[in-house]
Amino acid sequence: MKCLNVIPRIIDVGKKAQMIAYDSDLKIIGDTVDDAIDYVLDEENFKTYYQGTPELNPLTLEAQKTIAYEIVKQIEDPNLIIIPMGSGELLVSLWKGFKELQESNIIERIPKLIGVQSEFSSPIVKEFFNEDTLKIKQNNVFESIALGILVKKPIYKDLAIKYIKESEGTVVAVPEDLILSSVEELIRSEGIFAEPSSALTLAAIQLLDEKLLFEPKDKIVCLITGSGLKAPYILEAISSQTKTTGKGSIIITKLKILSQISLSSIRGITGTDIKEIMGTISLAAIYQHLKELEIKGLISRKKEGKNVLYFITDSGKKVLDALDVLITLL
User: Fold this and answer.
1) Range 61-87 average pLDDT
2) Average pLDDT over residues 49-53
3) Pick the CATH number of 58-230 from 3.40.50.1100, 3.40.50.2300, 3.90.79.10, 1.10.10.60
4) What are the start and end residues of each CATH 1.10.10.10 domain in the chain?
């Protein structure tokens, strides 16, 4: 089955690696999920492909609502459900599930739904409290470790707010330092390696406790929605195990460059374009890495006019495929 993934430029490298490993065609549109969704909503694009985008496919809501069934089956009468929010569709899905359970007389009341976002990007939280809509500053928000919920214009914002209020719940914006500490706490105490975009639900408990928004006897469920193996800092963990000082960061940089070349495998990409995408590394360093990747046979070059374009080779694709396996095994 042929698959096209439309993705933003800012995305966890582990997610991109899995798409590449499964031979999906990739198209990079804009910086955030919002840009990618705007593209697929174009009439021609919308009709060309089966729409698998979670926010745009009604089957997603029907599938995700069954999380509510699982919670009720495992935990009798939960009081609070803490849910990470990007576009808000997960929270809407759970409300739908709990509402159906209530209408079927399986539960008496819907638990309080608590929506959680990062302080770097919290448009639903801002709207809930009638604050000014958050204007994302690129030099701040893209430094967030919770990339999975980086959404500027949440499609389900109004519905999410409506259902949070109907359940007598609330919303929380979590500072980045608390998100990182929650990742560590889940690993240490529960043996769960969660991506930052879902670990922030644990951090929300601390903030709710400070505001006295729940009782000690309350049954609280934190939804952990994604594996930490997709997050880019897993590569940093790999590099810390290398014995040669600085070698780990060099490997990471080469993998990032190789990934960018792979994403432009049809038309090719210049060293300057790679520099603009990666930002922090110098152009001279980019070309040094390109030279070494070419020597190893992972990329090839082609001159077009004044530009030199780089393309990934079959060997380079195999390296990226292997990355997916490596991440899975960690």
Assistant:
1) 94
2) 80
3) 3.40.50.1100
4) 4-53+233-329
Give the Cα separation of 78 and 71 in Å (integer).
8
Q: Can you tell me the distance from the alpha carbon of 202 to that of 220, in angstroms, rounded to the nearest whole number?
A: 10
pLDDT of amino acid 273:
87
- Average per-residue pLDDT in the chain? 82
pLDDT at 38 over 80: yes
Q: If 0-12 CB within 10 Å is exposed, 13-18 middle and 19+ buried, where does residue 116 land?
A: buried
Average confidence (pLDDT) over 160-175:
95
Residue bearing the bigger pLDDT, 68 or 175: 68
User: At CB < 8 A and 24+ separation, what contacts does 26-34 make?
Assistant: 26/262, 26/263, 28/263, 31/138, 31/142, 32/8, 32/136, 32/150, 32/151, 32/152, 33/8, 33/86, 33/87, 33/150, 33/151, 34/151, 34/152, 34/153
Banded pLDDT at 19 (limits 50, 70, 90): confident
- Measured CA to CA in angstroms, residue 325 lies from 22, 76, 84, 139 at distances of 11, 39, 27, 33
Q: Regarding beta strands 25-28 and 4-7, do their DSSP bridges make them parallel or antiparallel, or are they unpaired?
A: parallel
For the record, the structure tokens of 163 come out as 């259902």
CATH tag, 4-53+233-329: 1.10.10.10
Flag whether pLDDT at 18 surpasses 60: yes
